[in-house]
């Protein structure tokens, strides 16, 4: 997710591999001033397109969920938190990445360097951990439906833990990043140059964030949905065997509304895995084989990062597909704008007649 902001090159340069918050800096004797390449220009253009779509769709989703029509009350704080994390990715990660690619070097000073690097990693942690909370909520609701009355309090507690952990795990960025100025060259970069004295220290730092940001959330979500699928499968077997089983809605093993919500959350989690897995795999490859950067085309790094950011746009689309009320809110908004536009010309015409 996060770019290798530690090298003295910006996210556009082939000197800076597209990894997690990587911290290794290439030898200054071999360092070359980076440039705004054509591959980087494509990345900036694609990022701006995603930014516009993600901002509009997530703000619309935030307004729709905030109105309280859907989803159920205990699930609403989870969706609001997910949208908030997506908006942080939209308004922090995407603009920072685009501007940094255009300017090539860092012009924001030391304090802004630290704060933005912290916010970037914080947004990514929040997005991943909120998905974990949603998975745990679905696991508990499906496997323990009679305890759903406590879901609201339980979800608030898990959300508090998720946001707190996101802050704590991103805080090292405030201490290891700083604005570094090259001696003998008019070039400044936001980097971790000098923060690590050994290569293995950098590898340990990167692997720690890879595990906590991707591996652990993926394992927890996989465990939750695997147990849910196993539970549903066993219930189907009992149904076929003719065993009596307490059901909450007619002849359904799981109420249709609850099953629909389950499908939506599964698709949201899958979009996270599909969008970010290639980028993480490329980062791991670099950590253990840094020379691969010389043989891998630059555009591969940029395309994978843009593809990862696509995940921010997927959540409102998925939510809208499974939630008719969200689509109804969007349709009502468009109809209102069309009605307002239709009334505007006659009003302007009457005003001109009055002036004449």
Automatic annotation (TrEMBL):
Region (Disordered): 1-20
InterPro entries reported for this sequence: GPCR_Rhodpsn (IPR000276), GPCR_Rhodpsn_7TM (IPR017452), GphnRH_fam_rcpt (IPR001658)
PROSITE patterns linked to this entry: G_PROTEIN_RECEP_F1_1, G_PROTEIN_RECEP_F1_2
Location of this chain's protein in the cell: Cell membrane
Organism encoding this protein: Takifugu rubripes
Transmembrane segments: 44-66, 78-98, 118-137, 158-177, 207-230, 266-288
GO molecular function, one term: G protein-coupled receptor activity
Annotated keywords: Cell membrane, Disulfide bond, G-protein coupled receptor, Membrane, Phosphoprotein, Receptor, Transducer, Transmembrane, Transmembrane helix
Membrane topology according to the record: Multi-pass membrane protein
Key word Transmembrane present: yes
GO biological process: cellular response to hormone stimulus
Feature: compositional bias, Polar residues: 1-16
GO cellular component term of the entry, any: plasma membrane
Family of this protein: Belongs to the G-protein coupled receptor 1 family.
Primary location recorded for the protein, binned into one broad class: membrane
UniProt-recorded name of the protein: Type II GnRH receptor
Residue ranges of domain G-protein coupled receptors family 1 profile in the record: 57-319
């Amino acid at each position: 997710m996060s770019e290798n902001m530690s090298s003295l090159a910006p996210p556009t340069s082939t000197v800076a591999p597209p990894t997690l918050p990587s911290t290794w800096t290439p030898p200054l004797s071999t360092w070359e001033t980076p440039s705004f390449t054509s591959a980087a220009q494509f990345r900036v253009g694609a990022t701006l397109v995603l930014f516009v779509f993600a901002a509009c769709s997530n703000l619309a989703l935030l307004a729709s969920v905030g109105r309280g029509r859907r989803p159920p009350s205990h699930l609403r704080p989870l969706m609001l938190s997910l949208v908030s994390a997506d908006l942080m990715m939209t308004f922090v990660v995407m603009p920072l990445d685009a501007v940094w690619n255009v300017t090539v070097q860092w012009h924001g000073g030391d304090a802004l360097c630290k704060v933005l690097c912290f916010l970037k990693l914080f947004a990514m942690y929040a997005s991943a951990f909120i998905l974990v909370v949603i998975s745990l909520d679905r696991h508990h609701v499906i496997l323990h439906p009679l305890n759903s009355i406590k879901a609201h309090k339980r979800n608030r507690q898990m959300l508090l833990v998720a946001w707190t952990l996101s802050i704590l795990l991103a805080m090292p960025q405030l201490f290891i990043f700083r604005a570094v100025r090259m001696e003998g060259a008019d070039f400044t970069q936001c980097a971790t140059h000098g923060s690590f004295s050994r290569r293995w220290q950098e590898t340990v730092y990167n692997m720690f964030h890879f595990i906590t940001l991707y591996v652990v959330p993926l394992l927890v979500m996989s465990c939750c949905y695997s147990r849910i699928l196993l539970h549903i499968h066993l219930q189907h077997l009992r149904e076929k065997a003719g065993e009596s089983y307490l059901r909450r809605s007619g002849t359904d093993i799981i109420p249709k509304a609850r099953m629909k919500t389950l499908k939506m959350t599964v698709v949201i989690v899958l979009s996270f895995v599909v969008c970010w897995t290639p980028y993480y795999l490329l980062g791991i490859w670099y950590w253990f084989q840094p020379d691969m950067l010389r043989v891998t085309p630059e555009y591969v790094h940029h395309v994978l990062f843009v593809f990862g950011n696509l995940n921010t746009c997927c959540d409102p689309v998925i939510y809208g597909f499974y939630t008719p009320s969200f689509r109804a809110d969007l349709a009502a908004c468009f109809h209102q704008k069309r009605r307002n536009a239709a009334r505007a010309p006659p009003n302007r015409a009457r005003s001109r007649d009055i002036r004449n």
